[in-house]
Each structure stands twice: as structure tokens, then as C-alpha cells.
Specification:
The protein is an alpha/beta fold and 317 residues long. It has eleven helices and twelve strands. The longest helix is centred in the last third of the chain and has 17 residues.
Length: 317
């Protein structure tokens, strides 16, 4: 193999374990590590790199900085999404974009189910009441049952499929909207494919699992929220801008839908005076769904495996 260089230009405050450089060196891959904050720094660190690696949410690689990456054949984003990478522009330049969803999908699926249960059983409201000295079951009486209800999934990738498997014990009917997934893949998990409007109108619980792209930004807006049942719960563990937040606030206040569980918001961190925080029918967590005791080691391992696959001319899994 000829000389192959990977430049790790976004670290998200993480330092790679020692074994990362050792493993890559064993494959005759040069690793350069430099957190880049400017185009000049990016050009210096990665201008001659075969692979540019971003660990986390750095936006240093953009449509305007892509021309600086003269040898780049692939961009790796360690994480479950690619919304901080210029995928369309990179593809037009013949650059492969890869990510590492397998490092996070189990934890995100767990969290989506946890949010659904927390909202449906009104656990957060009950906890707050007890802490205030109010021991009264009628304060937040559980309004929903899960058994036999209809679950709607917007997106049917790794995470949504894991959610489906976790909720099997509730014997739910599952409706799926994902124009990029085959009917066979949906039916394999005893789910049924449907158009978005059918999913929204038919589901008791709607869980969002699509990536953030220009096509999915505000995919769930006023029209879509009004299509949902008035007693429906919306769960979002994907990306905040997939949902029109202003419309969601109105939906929750005015009763278009009943409640929501959110791990992501349009702006993060949010303004402490955000109107969602005044509502008892919302549970919010700080974009933490993907984190688990072993996520970090899995993220480094899968990223290194992707680099090695690319270096040896193999398509990353």
C-alpha cells in the first residue's frame, strides 16, 4: 500500500486512546491529530490527507473549505449523523462520507423508549410533585397505555429498528415512513410501510429517527402536527430541526397533540426561558441519548476500522 494519511481535525474535547495511533501505524497509516478552527489550520493539517476524520460535531469541513482538501477521498464523521458535514458537496467531488451509527444506536433506542415511558406514565411530573411534598396520584394520572397501541416511526435505520425490537413485548402495531428502505426490510420486523400522513394520523406514538438533511428540516411542522391524534405523543431523538419547534409549542399548548419527549432541540443549548420548559406535557433531556458506558470505546473502534477499510480499498460497513 502506498503512503496513506488520515487527519483527525475535530475532537469534540476528546483525546484518542493510545491504541488508535498504534493500530493505524500497524497498518502503515499516518495519523495527524490537530483540532482545527480555521481554514488555514485545516489546510495545514489535512490538505494532503487521504481521509479527513471528524470526531463529533465540528463544522470545520464545509462546502467552502472542501477545496482545501486536495487529496481527500473520504470524510469520516464519528457519530450517528452527518449533518455537520457537507455531504452533497463532498459527493459531487467524489468524496465518500462515512459515519459510525453502530456506536450509538443501542443507547439512542434505549433513550427513545425511556422518553416514551416517562411521558406516557407521567413520571417526571409525578417526581416533581412528590419532591414538593404532594403525595397525590390524581396530580398526574397516567393517561396512556402502550400495549396494543400503534407506534409510528419516521425513519427506519439502525435506531428505529432497535426501538421496534425493544417494544415488541407491548405487542404494538408498527407503521413506518422511510422512502429509502425496502418493504422487505420493514416487513422483516413485522412492521408496515406507509406514507408520512398515514403514519402521523394512525399512530398513538410517533418516534422520529430520520437524519437531518435539507429535505427533512422541519419535516414535522404545523400541517403534520395537526394530522396527529390529539392524544398522541411525539418522541424526537434524531435532530432538533427536523421538528418546527414553534409549531410544536403551539401544538402542545393548544392540544393538537398531547405530549412530547425530546432529546434534541433546534438550538442547543437552548435559552433557559424556552417556552417548552413551562409545559408539564414535555420531557426534555440534553442531547444525551447516544451516550452510554461503552459508547466512547465503540466510537473509536468503529472509526479506526473505517479508516483501515478505506486505506485498503474496502467499502466501509
Amino acid at each position: 500500500m502506498s503512503h496513506f494519511k488520515v487527519a483527525l481535525v475535530g475532537l469534540d474535547g476528546q483525546g484518542p486512546p493510545d491504541w488508535v495511533a498504534e493500530r493505524l501505524a500497524g497498518e502503515q497509516i499516518e495519523l495527524v491529530i490537530r483540532e482545527c478552527f480555521s481554514p488555514d489550520e485545516l489546510a495545514d493539517a489535512a490538505g494532503d490527507a487521504d481521509v479527513v476524520w471528524i470526531f463529533g460535531g465540528s463544522r470545520i469541513v464545509s462546502e467552502s473549505t472542501l477545496p482545501l482538501l486536495e487529496r481527500c477521498g473520504a470524510i469520516i464523521r464519528t457519530g450517528s449523523g452527518t449533518d455537520n458535514v457537507p455531504v452533497t458537496a463532498a459527493t459531487a467531488c467524489g468524496i465518500v462520507v462515512a459515519n459510525t451509527p453502530e456506536a450509538f444506536h443501542d443507547a439512542v433506542a434505549d433513550h427513545a423508549v425511556a422518553l416514551l415511558l416517562a411521558v406516557a406514565r407521567q413520571i417526571v411530573v409525578q417526581d416533581r410533585a412528590v419532591r414538593r411534598g404532594v403525595w397525590d396520584r390524581s396530580t398526574a394520572w397516567p393517561r396512556w397505555r402502550l400495549h396494543g397501541q400503534v407506534l409510528g416511526l419516521v425513519g427506519f435505520g439502525h435506531i428505529a429498528r432497535a426501538v421496534t425490537r425493544r417494544l415488541r413485548g407491548f405487542e404494538m402495531k408498527v407503521l413506518v415512513f422511510d422512502p429509502y428502505v425496502t418493504a422487505e426490510a420493514v416487513e422483516k420486523l413485522d412492521a408496515r410501510g406507509a406514507l408520512l400522513d398515514e403514519v402521523l394520523a394512525g399512530a398513538d406514538f410517533v418516534s422520529i429517527h430520520c437524519p437531518l438533511t435539507p429535505e427533512t428540516r422541519h419535516l414535522i411542522g404545523e400541517r403534520e402536527l395537526r394530522r396527529m391524534k390529539p392524544d398522541a405523543i411525539l418522541i424526537n431523538t434524531s435532530r432538533g430541526p427536523v421538528v418546527d419547534e414553534a409549531a410544536l409549542v403551539r401544538a402542545l399548548r393548544e392540544g393538537w397533540i398531547a405530549a412530547a419527549g425530546l432529546d434534541v432541540l433546534e438550538r442547543e443549548p437552548p435559552d433557559p426561558t424556552h417556552p417548552l420548559f413551562s409545559l408539564d406535557n414535555v420531557v426534555v433531556t440534553p442531547h444525551i441519548a447516544g451516550y452510554s458506558p461503552d459508547y466512547l470505546s465503540a466510537a473509536w473502534r468503529l472509526s479506526v476500522e473505517t479508516v483501515i477499510d478505506l486505506a485498503h480499498g474496502r467499502w466501509p460497513r
